[in-house]
Write a structure and sequence with these properties.
This protein is of the alpha/beta class and 380 residues long. It has two domains: 3-126 and 364-379, Enolase-like, N-terminal domain (Enolase-like, domain 1, 2-Layer Sandwich); 131-352, Enolase-like C-terminal domain (TIM Barrel), CATH 3.20.20.120. The protein is built from 13 helices and 14 strands. It has helices at residues 58-70, 82-92, 94-100, 103-125, 129-133, 153-162, 176-187, 206-215, 234-243, 257-266, 281-294, 307-320, 334-337, and strands at 3-23, 26-40, 45-50, 78-79, 140-149, 167-171, 195-199, 224-225, 248-250, 271-272, 298-299, 326-329, 350-352, 372-379. Strands 5, 6, 7, 8, 9, 10, 11, 12 and 13 form a nine-stranded mixed β-sheet that branches. Strands 1, 2, 3, 4 and 14 form a five-stranded antiparallel β-sheet that branches. β5 (140-149), α6 and β6 (167-171) form a beta-alpha-beta unit. α4 packs across α11 (281-294) and α11 (281-294) packs parallel to α12. The longest helix is centred in the N-terminal third of the chain and has 23 residues, at 103-125. The radius of gyration is 20 Å and the shape is globular. The two termini are 20 Å apart. This is Mandelate racemase.
């Protein structure tokens, strides 16, 4: 059934935080998010989220891209499906992105719009998104605690454990000697059945990554994430994989079906982590998730943002099946928690998907309204 879009609403948000969130490449001093709503000529609607963590001014920039650079490609246009929208927008924004060299922002906006269109389609079909993608989709997904600062890992892991998590991921890549010493101590605190992963956020060149791997060779990490830049030569990734006794993980900074196909084919990664808000939305990430699983690699979607993107990632993981884990940033974020993804449950180690159509989101929570930094709406 064709879909003619008649209204687009987008809002950027920023929430002050008491404790900055540090990665090896920079520090987040607030929590941003961009939520977008599409409505068709029949009044059906859908919600999506656009990646907005970086750069610091990224949220407002991407929200303005929707209103000022994309609306002419959407309003009054008829699409056969979200996949059709994704393909058309990718094609029609190519020169615009080339002109300004902003491939990332355009891809991220298209990803959020695709998520909103998929939500709209699933609502029209009367199905949750997971079942819309796959009738045999699971109704629950397992989660792991992410965003844990290595220097505060003792307390953050204890808090995460109390919240029901049994798998944890700490951020490394700050000081190699200190990081490895702290990791070694953390392993002595883990309980039976608990898993610890490490994320370097692209911190190292090959020699530093090799040093880390050699120092931690006896530690049973669940995986080592982005020890090298995403665009490091394949020879460097292969060399590190040959030396690393635990799976390498990556994918949040890979874009394009072809790039994922090439990455999967190398066999370098044991865990692949596409981010639905950074590239692809459902139209791109759903086939990629299937290809990852078919290859025998593990699919664990990356996500670090607000509530809509987290819920969308959960639906995608549930549809894909397998032994994947949903990433849940455990740092305070009202733009995530206001959506109550766990429906009041205290155990966050498992997320049960709503059975309502689409992503189960009708309106944005009232309590986030005061954090809006930009709002825009265009309609026929």
């Amino acid at each position: 059934m064709s879909i003619t879009l008649s209204r687009i609403t987008v809002t950027a948000y920023r929430v002050p935080i008491a404790s900055p969130v540090a990665t090896s490449f920079g520090v987040m001093h607030n929590r941003p998010a961009v939520f977008v709503r599409l409505e068709d000529s029949d009044g059906a609607f859908g919600w999506g989220e656009i990646f907005a963590n970086w750069p610091a001014a990224g949220a407002e920039h991407r929200a303005r891209l929707v209103v000022e650079d994309m609306a002419d490609l959407l309003l009054g246009q008829t699409f056969d499906s979200a996949t059709d929208l994704f393909a058309q927008l990718t094609d029609k924004t190519h020169i615009r992105a080339l002109q300004c060299g902003e491939w990332g922002p355009f891809r991220q906006v298209i990803a959020g719009l695709d998520t909103a269109m998929t939500d709209l389609e699933a609502r029209r079909a009367g199905l949750p998104v997971a079942q819309f993608l796959n009738a045999e989709a699971a109704h629950t997904v397992h989660c792991y605690a992410s965003g844990i600062a290595i220097a505060q890992a003792d307390s953050q892991i204890a808090q995460s454990r109390a919240a029901g998590f049994s798998a944890f991921k700490v951020k490394v890549g700050f000081d190699l000697t200190r990081d490895t010493d702290l990791l070694r101590t953390l392993f002595t605190t883990l309980g039976a059945g608990e898993t610890l992963c490490a994320d370097a956020n692209q911190a190292w060149a090959l020699p530093e990554a090799e040093r880390f791997v050699a120092t931690c060779a006896d530690l049973p990490l669940g995986w080592l994430e982005e020890p090298l830049p995403a665009d490091a030569p394949l020879t460097h990734w292969s060399a590190l994989a040959d030396q690393c006794p635990v799976p390498l993980a990556g994918g949040e900074n890979i874009t394009g079906t072809g790039s994922f196909a090439d990455t999967i084919a190398t066999g370098v990664f044991g865990v692949l982590q596409p981010d639905i808000a950074k590239w692809g939305g459902f139209s791109g990430c759903w086939p990629v998730s299937q290809a990852i699983r078919t290859s025998g690699q593990r699919y664990c979607p990356h996500f670090l943002g607000g509530g809509i993107g987290l819920i969308a990632s959960a639906h995608l993981l549930a549809a894909a099946g397998g032994d994947g884990l949903l990433e849940v940033d455990v740092n305070p974020n009202p733009l995530r928690d206001a959506f109550d993804p766990w429906a009041g449950a205290s155990d966050r180690g498992t997320l049960t998907l709503a059975t309502t159509p689409g992503l189960g989101i009708t309106d944005l929570p009232d309590e986030i309204a005061g954090f809006a930094s930009f709002s825009g709406e265009v309609h026929l």
